[in-house]
Amino acid sequence: MHLCLFLIIVPFTQGLSQVSVVNRCPFVVFLKSVQQDVSQVQELGFSQIYSEAYRPVINGTGVSIKITTNRKVGEEVDEQKRSAEFDNSPVTQLEYSYVPSNGPVDLFYDISAIDDSPERQFCQYGYQLHTTSFRCDSVHCPTRCDAFCPHVYNLPDDNWATHGCTSDVGLELVLCTSYTDMP
Fold it and tell me: What is the mean pLDDT of residues 59-86?
Protein backbone atom coordinates (compact mmCIF):
# COMPACT_ATOMS: atom_id res chain seq x y z
CA MET A 1 0.00 0.00 0.00
CA HIS A 2 2.77 2.47 0.83
CA LEU A 3 4.55 1.63 -2.41
CA CYS A 4 1.41 2.44 -4.42
CA LEU A 5 1.11 5.82 -2.73
CA PHE A 6 4.80 6.50 -3.39
CA LEU A 7 4.39 5.67 -7.09
CA ILE A 8 1.42 7.98 -7.38
CA ILE A 9 3.10 10.95 -5.68
CA VAL A 10 6.57 10.76 -7.21
CA PRO A 11 5.67 11.42 -10.88
CA PHE A 12 3.96 14.70 -10.27
CA THR A 13 6.20 16.14 -7.56
CA GLN A 14 8.79 16.54 -10.30
CA GLY A 15 6.55 18.75 -12.46
CA LEU A 16 5.39 21.69 -10.41
CA SER A 17 3.65 24.49 -12.26
CA GLN A 18 2.37 22.17 -14.95
CA VAL A 19 -0.71 20.18 -15.79
CA SER A 20 -0.55 16.53 -16.85
CA VAL A 21 -2.94 13.90 -18.18
CA VAL A 22 -2.03 10.27 -17.46
CA ASN A 23 -3.73 7.57 -19.52
CA ARG A 24 -4.20 4.39 -17.48
CA CYS A 25 -6.98 3.22 -19.81
CA PRO A 26 -6.60 -0.02 -21.75
CA PHE A 27 -7.25 2.00 -24.91
CA VAL A 28 -5.94 5.11 -26.69
CA VAL A 29 -7.40 8.52 -25.83
CA PHE A 30 -7.08 11.69 -27.89
CA LEU A 31 -6.70 15.24 -26.63
CA LYS A 32 -6.38 18.84 -27.70
CA SER A 33 -5.19 21.76 -25.63
CA VAL A 34 -7.35 24.77 -26.46
CA GLN A 35 -7.00 28.42 -25.55
CA GLN A 36 -7.20 31.10 -28.24
CA ASP A 37 -5.21 28.75 -30.44
CA VAL A 38 -5.76 25.01 -30.72
CA SER A 39 -3.10 22.32 -30.58
CA GLN A 40 -3.07 19.42 -32.99
CA VAL A 41 -4.77 16.25 -31.85
CA GLN A 42 -2.47 14.34 -29.49
CA GLU A 43 -2.70 10.56 -29.17
CA LEU A 44 -2.12 9.09 -25.72
CA GLY A 45 -1.62 5.33 -25.46
CA PHE A 46 -1.79 3.19 -22.34
CA SER A 47 0.46 4.58 -19.55
CA GLN A 48 1.48 7.62 -21.63
CA ILE A 49 1.50 11.14 -20.20
CA TYR A 50 0.71 14.52 -21.75
CA SER A 51 2.08 17.59 -19.93
CA GLU A 52 2.18 21.32 -20.48
CA ALA A 53 3.42 24.27 -18.45
CA TYR A 54 0.66 26.53 -17.16
CA ARG A 55 -0.27 29.17 -19.70
CA PRO A 56 -1.60 32.50 -18.42
CA VAL A 57 -5.09 33.63 -19.38
CA ILE A 58 -5.30 35.62 -22.61
CA ASN A 59 -8.05 38.25 -22.69
CA GLY A 60 -9.87 36.37 -19.92
CA THR A 61 -9.61 33.00 -21.67
CA GLY A 62 -8.17 30.03 -19.80
CA VAL A 63 -7.10 26.64 -21.17
CA SER A 64 -9.25 23.59 -21.83
CA ILE A 65 -7.62 20.21 -22.35
CA LYS A 66 -10.31 18.29 -24.20
CA ILE A 67 -10.19 14.49 -24.09
CA THR A 68 -12.12 11.94 -26.16
CA THR A 69 -12.13 8.17 -26.56
CA ASN A 70 -13.59 8.29 -30.09
CA ARG A 71 -11.52 5.73 -32.06
CA LYS A 72 -12.50 7.33 -35.38
CA VAL A 73 -10.18 10.23 -34.51
CA GLY A 74 -7.22 7.83 -34.62
CA GLU A 75 -8.33 6.34 -37.93
CA GLU A 76 -8.05 9.68 -39.74
CA VAL A 77 -4.67 10.30 -41.38
CA ASP A 78 -5.44 13.79 -42.68
CA GLU A 79 -4.94 16.26 -39.79
CA GLN A 80 -7.84 18.47 -40.88
CA LYS A 81 -10.28 15.52 -40.97
CA ARG A 82 -8.83 14.19 -37.74
CA SER A 83 -9.42 17.54 -36.06
CA ALA A 84 -12.98 17.74 -37.43
CA GLU A 85 -13.75 14.22 -36.13
CA PHE A 86 -12.34 15.24 -32.73
CA ASP A 87 -14.45 18.41 -32.67
CA ASN A 88 -17.62 16.34 -33.23
CA SER A 89 -16.81 13.88 -30.43
CA PRO A 90 -17.97 13.82 -26.80
CA VAL A 91 -15.23 15.29 -24.59
CA THR A 92 -14.22 15.41 -20.94
CA GLN A 93 -12.45 18.69 -20.23
CA LEU A 94 -9.73 19.56 -17.75
CA GLU A 95 -9.98 23.34 -17.55
CA TYR A 96 -7.64 25.78 -15.85
CA SER A 97 -7.04 29.51 -15.67
CA TYR A 98 -3.67 30.78 -14.54
CA VAL A 99 -4.02 34.45 -13.54
CA PRO A 100 -0.52 35.64 -12.47
CA SER A 101 -1.71 39.06 -11.25
CA ASN A 102 -4.47 37.63 -9.05
CA GLY A 103 -2.46 37.37 -5.82
CA PRO A 104 -1.80 34.25 -3.76
CA VAL A 105 -4.60 32.19 -5.35
CA ASP A 106 -3.73 32.50 -9.03
CA LEU A 107 -4.76 29.09 -10.42
CA PHE A 108 -8.36 28.01 -10.92
CA TYR A 109 -9.27 24.56 -12.21
CA ASP A 110 -12.12 22.13 -12.77
CA ILE A 111 -13.26 19.13 -14.76
CA SER A 112 -16.25 19.49 -17.06
CA ALA A 113 -18.45 16.64 -18.26
CA ILE A 114 -20.95 19.00 -19.93
CA ASP A 115 -19.87 17.98 -23.45
CA ASP A 116 -19.39 14.32 -22.51
CA SER A 117 -22.80 13.02 -23.40
CA PRO A 118 -24.69 10.89 -23.83
CA GLU A 119 -22.45 7.97 -22.85
CA ARG A 120 -20.01 9.62 -20.36
CA GLN A 121 -16.91 7.96 -21.73
CA PHE A 122 -15.00 7.35 -18.49
CA CYS A 123 -17.90 6.37 -16.17
CA GLN A 124 -16.99 2.68 -16.10
CA TYR A 125 -13.30 3.40 -15.42
CA GLY A 126 -13.28 6.42 -13.12
CA TYR A 127 -10.80 9.31 -13.01
CA GLN A 128 -9.07 11.54 -10.49
CA LEU A 129 -7.55 14.99 -10.59
CA HIS A 130 -4.69 15.13 -8.07
CA THR A 131 -2.73 18.16 -6.92
CA THR A 132 0.81 18.25 -5.58
CA SER A 133 -0.35 19.91 -2.37
CA PHE A 134 -2.74 18.74 0.31
CA ARG A 135 -3.92 22.34 0.70
CA CYS A 136 -5.55 22.19 -2.76
CA ASP A 137 -8.68 20.24 -3.63
CA SER A 138 -8.56 17.05 -5.64
CA VAL A 139 -11.47 15.70 -7.69
CA HIS A 140 -12.51 12.05 -7.67
CA CYS A 141 -15.04 10.45 -10.01
CA PRO A 142 -15.47 6.78 -9.13
CA THR A 143 -16.63 4.11 -11.52
CA ARG A 144 -20.32 4.68 -11.75
CA CYS A 145 -22.49 4.88 -14.85
CA ASP A 146 -25.90 5.14 -13.19
CA ALA A 147 -25.38 8.74 -12.01
CA PHE A 148 -23.35 11.82 -12.87
CA CYS A 149 -20.10 12.47 -11.04
CA PRO A 150 -21.07 14.97 -8.34
CA HIS A 151 -17.63 16.65 -8.24
CA VAL A 152 -17.48 18.06 -11.79
CA TYR A 153 -19.40 20.41 -14.04
CA ASN A 154 -22.42 18.48 -15.31
CA LEU A 155 -24.41 21.66 -15.99
CA PRO A 156 -23.10 25.09 -17.03
CA ASP A 157 -23.93 26.67 -13.65
CA ASP A 158 -22.16 24.07 -11.46
CA ASN A 159 -19.70 26.79 -10.38
CA TRP A 160 -19.02 25.05 -7.04
CA ALA A 161 -16.93 22.57 -9.10
CA THR A 162 -14.23 25.22 -9.68
CA HIS A 163 -11.28 25.11 -7.28
CA GLY A 164 -8.53 27.64 -6.58
CA CYS A 165 -4.91 27.25 -5.53
CA THR A 166 -1.43 28.67 -6.07
CA SER A 167 0.37 28.11 -9.36
CA ASP A 168 3.35 26.44 -7.71
CA VAL A 169 1.10 23.38 -7.39
CA GLY A 170 0.92 20.82 -10.19
CA LEU A 171 -2.27 19.24 -11.50
CA GLU A 172 -2.46 15.63 -12.70
CA LEU A 173 -5.56 14.06 -14.23
CA VAL A 174 -5.39 10.25 -14.10
CA LEU A 175 -7.83 8.53 -16.44
CA CYS A 176 -9.20 5.04 -15.73
CA THR A 177 -8.23 4.91 -12.06
CA SER A 178 -10.07 1.61 -11.63
CA TYR A 179 -7.99 -0.16 -14.29
CA THR A 180 -5.52 -2.36 -12.41
CA ASP A 181 -3.45 -4.03 -15.13
CA MET A 182 -0.62 -1.49 -15.09
CA PRO A 183 2.74 -2.68 -16.50
Answer: 95
